[in-house]
Design brief:
The protein is α+β, with helices and mostly antiparallel strands. It contains 18 helices and 35 strands. The strands form eleven sheets. Strands 6-7-3-35 form a four-stranded antiparallel sheet. It has a four-stranded antiparallel sheet with strand order 5-4-8-24. The model is unreliable at 544-549 (pLDDT under 50).
Length: 798
Amino acid sequence: MSFRVNTNVASQFSMDYLRGTSETQGKAVGRLTSGLRILASGDDAAGLAIANGSRSDQAMLTQGLRNANDGLSTLQTLDGGLRNINGLLDRARTLAAQSASGTFRGDRGVLQGEFAAVLGEIDRQAQAMGLSTGGKFARSFAVFVGGGRGLDRDAASSNGSVVLDLANAAVDTKSLGLNRVQAQGIGTVDIGPGSPGTSVQAILANSANRASNTVTGFTEFFFRGPGFAGGERIKVSVNLAGVTTVDQLVGNINAAITAAAQPTSQQATSFENAGIRAAVLTDSTGRKSLSFSSPSVAFQVTAGDRLANALLGNVTSSSNPTGRTLGNVFTTSGNIAAAGTTFGATGAGTVTFRFQGSSLASPVDVGIPVAATTTITEALASLRLAVAGNAALQGAGLTVLTTTAGTPMTFGNTRGERFEVLTSGDVNNLFALGSYQGSAGAGGSFDYATITGAAGTFAAAPETLEFSIGGGAKVAFSLTPAAAGIDGATTALNAAFASNSQTAAAGLVASNDGAAITITSTNGSRFRLNSVGTTNVFGFNDRGGAPANGVADVAEIPPAGTQNHAFAAGGLQQTGLLSFSPIRNGGDDQTITVTAIDPAGVDQSMALVLRNDTTGRNAGTVDEAVQAINNALQQSNNATLRQIIAIKDKATTAGPDGIRLISNLSSFNVSIGTNAGGTGIGGQGTIVTAALEGSSLPASVLTREGAEDALMALGEATTRVGAAQAVVGRGQNRFTYALNLAQSQLTNLAASESRIRDADMAEEAARLTKGQILLRSGVAALAQANSAPEQVLTLLRA
């Protein structure tokens, strides 16, 4: 046995064990006094991270439960309000039923007073609830509850939210179809029996009105709206047989609307969904006027003939029921060739007539083949047959009015719309519309982006060339090359093109291959060329020395008097009239952006490009631009933007056509881009915001007929309120289920955190007792170990 004084190993062992025992006892005391198993991160780092996550989730779910309860309370409030709206509708329906009775002998004005008050109260309560059009709750919104899981944060947030779509739950009179958007005829003209001069009976009996009918005994109206705008407008042909009163007229019009709304096409289905109906409005003086209305869809109605124009109040005078004429005339200042004139060898081929305007969605070309021996009389007859047999031109109301050679070339339009007729291939100008040539001479394409000459003399001699860019006015160059030869001729052309703003903007450039000159537009502009005279200096005179008449002058001759035959619905958002000038150059692309706010309050935008180049040609006329805008809106597949339509309109009866955008949305705007030529839609570089225009048509029980219509509208309104209640009810149920799930998640998360974070008190008490015993015994053992070295002194005393 050895004895050491310097190192007391036993004492050190005792102190180590005693230290561990003391730490264990301290943790046990801490856990027993705090109730927590994890007092510091080192106690259980992984467990602490999990527990903290559970605690954070509990905080989120606790607030989520409050959110869900708030949402549930809101829906319960809306549910009570909707029950009240139902009660108001019941009262309104009672009043309408009373007024609709043929045996009612009381004062319908009294009924109307209460009826209007009930409708006003519906609007007030809908606004107070936030369920009016554009109201606080009439949209789609999400209530965050929490507890969602997903592959990423967005998915987790989405899965933890209850989404409610109340966008179609608005219950004001406009949303319920009790305050309809309307297009009214001229209200100052009375078509009722109280005005014999312009009564329905007088209008129908007028011979000039009847003669304008395309089909005997039928008058026509045209409607444009979302899905049936521009060239896809809907024609409604009204049978006038047996009609002698205003009420009979309205009945026949509505029957024709129903027939036109049969779902035989996408346009007809959209027309059916618009719910357009005809009615007679009676003002405070008793004057009656024809009107059309829709529950909420923006639309425009136009007269298709003089009779329809008269029914819309556009008559010659208050005592003359003749409708204002709708026929525009497009005529030449000169005469076509005399009878017996033939086209000759240089004129043989195809003469192409291009029709544009008059609501044509795109230009319509009609080709008339002519031989050298074909006479102008024969060609004119062929043209008349071709136009009469073209469905698009007939739908646009376009006809050939000229029947005799040696007279002006005249075309007519029975729809009251502007149009123009252009030609190419008539190299000897027999039709008096100009002698522009086709791309390959007579019979070539109507216009072109490149053309190559042939057999040019390239002499230093004068010659006149005329160009039309994109169907525009002619640009004439009288040229004499400075030097003979093809290079001199090419240089002369390029100098002329560069000196003129129109040809420079069109990117016209001349080049040659040593044998022929080619003229090309570098930006895709299309043009027509005419070589005047008998020379062929540049190689573009395809007449073989025949004389040329140059480009003809033409004029549009609108009918005298007023032309208010187009009526846009009021009581909705409209832009001001946007001016328009044709885009003719390929470099003048213009971007138009339409922005609207959807029911969720989110901006929805769509941009389209108006252009006239190799990529697309959709802005050569105002009709093409209108069609392009409507196509883009409908093809956006955006439910909000599809409620906007573009219509053709004009500020004054004799003014130029412009574009107006209309919609039943609460707001939208149009951003108008710029281009180098300043063409396309005017107001470039600005944002045009739509504003409320015109008045809507509230339901009325002032007449028996109005009361009958109101009964139908109130029945549909009750159905709409029921649908809104169903949405609110579904929302309440979803919140209830969400609350149950969130509460369950909260309870389980608390239990999970407790199992990780909380201390087992029994286990810790036992650990404390054990520690106390070990501590006392350790202290005693340490005392013994410390006293062991004293035994060495015994050896020394000996």
